[in-house]
Amino acid sequence: MTNAHPHRAPHQHSDPGSTARPTCCPLLRPHPQSHPARIAFFDVDHTLTTVTTPALFWEYWSTAARTAPLAAGRALPAAAGVAREERNRDYYRLFAGVPAMELGRAGARWYGGFRVTAQPFLPAPLAALRAHRAAGDLVVLVSGAPRACLLPLARDLGAGLVLGCEQLTDRWGRLTGEITRPMIGAAKADAAAEVMARHGADPADCHAYGDHSSDLPLLRLCGHPTVVGDDPVLAGHTERDGWERLPGVESLVRIRK
Predict the structure, then answer these.
(1) Where is the sequence biased in composition, kind Basic residues (predicted)?
(2) Helix H segments across 10-122?
């Protein structure tokens, strides 16, 4: 594992002109136990946050004075009829040629503004995360959102680990626009399983939180799955399998009405 800062110590990749960062950032804060008994895995968008981070960050990136020139001539790819994994790859291609350090700095600036919006986080999942921290559990964020946004969020909420996309860079530290794999669907479960094995945690004792049917592999992996929101596929599991459920963004819309 390399340093948690997104621009340092890239690993050598099969292409001698590009490098890859590990999916698993090291612990952002030391855990009191080298092998925590329980790990709580949280998806981010619409599980913890009230927004879709990639879209919101792109809006910031493409309009902020410092970064708008880097976004010139580029636009978010169409979502209709495109698999989530491919959309995730297309999203990161928007940043081809961007210095990785600049992306990291922009993520920190974006998060500073996002954090002071009216309601950045869903109350119930945020309370659950804080309860896990108070109980001594290792909190892990698992998301396909940009790591530049996830790292300041993780530090703010006290998460110990971030599992995200591996962005490739060239020898000069510029993003190639490619990732090794989207952190969506089964990839989330695979990454979580690696963390549990590394820390000696029993999956039966671990918790997972997700809001979308693509989170199903992660939720099934853990002994204590919790559905956030009203996704119809996940709602079926709450009824059939007795999974826990917390209110999601839909509840905020109903309250505002």
Answers:
(1) 1-11
(2) 53-61, 68-71, 84-93, 100-115
